[in-house]
Amino acid sequence: MKIRNLVIAVSIFSFLSVDAFAQADEANSGSPYSYYGIGSPTQTNTAQEKGMGIIGVSFNDLQSPGLGNPAFWGIGAFTRGSANFGLTNYSITDGQDSGANSLLNVGSFQAVFPVISNKLGLSVALFPETRSNYSANAESSRTLEDGSLLDFGYTKEGTGGLTKFEVGLGYRINKNLSIGYAPSYSFLTQNNKESVTTLNNKSLTDLTTSSVNAKINGTNLSHRFGVLATARKVFGARDIIQVGAAYTLKNEFEAEKKRETVKTLGDTFGSEIQIGATEQETISLPSRLSGGISYFAGPSFSLSVEGMFEDWSNAEYGFDATQEASFSDRFMIGVGTQFNAYNSNSRGFLSNFEYTAGVSYDSGYLNIEGQDIETLWFSAGLGMISPIVRSQSSFDFSVQYGIRGTTDNNLVKENIWAFNLSVNLAELMFFKRKLN
Question: What domains does the chain contain, in order, with CATH numbers?
Answer without folding.
Answer: 2-430 (2.40.160.60)
